[in-house]
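Continuing the batch. This is chain 6 of the set; chains 1 through 5 are on the previous pages. Same settings as before, nothing changed between runs. Recording input and output for traceability.
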Amino acid sequence: MSLYGLDWFKGKKVLELGAGLCEIGAFFAELGADVTCLEGRQETVDMARLKHRKVPNLRIEQCDLETDFSHYGTFDLILHLGLLYHLGNVDEHLAICFGMTDEMVMETVVCDSLDPQKIVYFEGRKDVIEESIHGAACRPSPFYVERLASEAGFEMERMFTADLNSGYFVYDWDHKDDGNPGDFDLRRA
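Output for chain 6:
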């Protein structure tokens, strides 16, 4: 809200990726945005549709975000929160996102590296409902993500302040540049 204010969302097209139960998308739909939420697991989509069945301007769809989802069109804003580190095809996925909007808010788990080429891939837990549907997991460096955004013509604004910290999630950590993939604690927005 501090980035856009309340009035900005009325009439805007917003896409929420990896939406889970669509709480964030539903909030912006209630502010007057036309929101599409894409979530990978059908059972989560079913729960979200039931929970938010009375929210106007909210479309909730099951979509494998490891595939091309550009057919959903273009948006004024993409909300990309807590998804990237559950994907195996980061470069391709972000290229699709960058082609669908001029504005994106992203939050992700990262590895502790200053290298704009560094990304660590490993096996995720596809049996956990909040994780990858394919079992992929990755930790790009923050500079890896920024490099891809810059190459696509995006300008970045970092938000690494302590006021974002929440329990286990830490945003204002100092780089040791040791490649540590952490668990889910090293985050950047």
